[in-house]
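Next comes a single protein record:
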Amino acid sequence: MTPEANDAKPAGHGVLLTVAYDGRPFAGFARQPTERTVAGELDGAVRSIDPRATVVRGASRTDAGVHARAQRVAFDTEMSIPSRGWVMALNAALPEEIVVRRAAVIAPAFEPRFHGISKVYRYVLLAGAVADPFLAGRCWRIGERLNHDTMRRAAAPLLGEHDFAAFRAAGDERTDTVRRIFRIEVRSGSGDDPRLTEILVEGNRFMYRMVRIIVGSLVDIAVGRLEEARITQALERRDRALLGRTAPPGGLFLDSVRLDDEGTDPWPFDEVASLA
């Protein structure tokens, strides 16, 4: 029997978690039968405390190597454990690459991906001739000069609601490709390090590798490999071939997920649920 088959009936109440993880050791968030995944590790930790709990349900299926500061995860249980107890017990059972930052009580069968208001992704670029061992696996090193003004101008047409069919990987076969981008920022000198550039993208929903395609295209425009008009042309023609590279996964972070229900009885009380 698969874990999903064992979840036909939700348990007495739900638990909503805010989870941070280093994505490097994992084959993504979604569970896979032969690979180590974030969901698989969370399933094991939850069921080491309550063997009858459901498997976890995440707000975003981050790819292999992608990180999260505030992934949202829910599961159902019949055990009467306070939110603080879940945070402490789960962190004791999880590997060091995954940390539960917050827990709250939520309705049973709560699906975070169906209750999202917005998500914020952050991509980190390192400009330099050599790598930085302290940023290994957490940035994309660009050996060429980035023109930030050009990058900001090229990104502007992405704001608002558009058909983003051109901004998805070939494996995404969804027919609904309309999405809304609320915010896109290019920040240079992030964290007082002049080598770093951050690209923040906030939207209502995202498709497979959408943010990485946006970032890769903006980088190709910023270094002169693509014309600035390619973003607008790709939106109009729905043609992936007009865009640039897909940025590697290591520089991408799921920074926050805003939900329409944050649950009750949270712990820690001063920990912002979604880091929005």
About this structure: The first strand starts at residue 13 and ends at 21.
